[in-house]
What does this fold into?
Amino acid sequence: MRPHKNIKKYPDLWYNGVCEDNITTNFAGSKVILGLIETIRFNQALRTLGLAKAANAISPTHCILQYLIIGWLLGCERLFHYRSLQGDALVAHALGDRVPHHTLLNKDLLRLGKARQ
It folds into this structure.
C-alpha cells in the first residue's frame, strides 16, 4: 500500500496499526488524538487543577480525568464502555503504562461532585 502524498508534509500521521514500540490498538485514529494530547501537554495542565488524592493513591486524579477525556474522544459514551480500553496498549502508553480500572471512574466522579459542593 502506498502512503498518501501528504505524508511527506506530516510524517507522524502515517500510521499502519503499529507504532514505534510495536504497540497495536483497536481504535482508528487514536495515535493522532493521543499524540495531540501529548503535544499540548494536557496531562501537566490537569495536574495544576489542585484536585489531589492521598499521596499513596494508585491512580491520581489527573490520570483519571485524562482517562475519562481520552475514552470520550475514542467513543466511550458510558462508564462500562471503558472496559474496552483496559487492554489497549496505546492508551496505557499515553497514561504512563497504568490504566485505571473502569470501576474507579464512577467513584472518582462522585467524589469530584461532592468536592464541588
The chain is about 45% helix and 0% strand. Confidence is low (pLDDT under 50) at residues 1-19. The radius of gyration is 16 Å.
